[in-house]
Amino acid sequence: MYSKKVLNHFAKPRNLGEIKNPDGVGEAINPVCGDSTKISIKVKKIDGKAVVDDIKFRTLGCVAAVATSSLTTELAKGKSLAEIKKFTRDQVVWKLHGLPIKKVHCSNLALDALKKAIQDYQSKQRSKQKPKSIKKIRNKSK
Ligand code: FES
What we know:
Layout (H helix, E strand, L loop, with lengths): L3 H8 L12 E6 L6 E11 L2 E12 L2 H14 L4 H5 L3 H7 L12 H21 L5 H8 L1
Antiparallel strand pairs: 1-2, 2-3
The site of FE2/S2 (inorganic) cluster (FES) has 9 residues, from helix 2.
């Protein structure tokens, strides 16, 4: 039913756990079965690009949910946030050598949680930026 790769990621999940003081956290819940995945990330700037330096996950869910979470974190480590935003569910399923058709929906959890972690990081970055003074804004508009 499951590929060897799926079973391997389920038996030996990569990047399991939670990062202390993460730069971003995202959580996704499957409303149908109630399974959930939480992903935390550390981000580093390399050559001006924001890159995932470390990533951890916790999944309460089925074999497919754990395996896709493990593989997704493996794929994301060392990648830029822009590259990760282009990840698709099909890519993850393909890298796992397929999933039973009834389990394909389980692969949404990890990607949704990861993309929320990136959004969380980016919104924290925006709130750190100093607001421009009203005087500067007025001078620019003249
Ligand atoms: Fe719930 Fe797989 S059955 S995520």
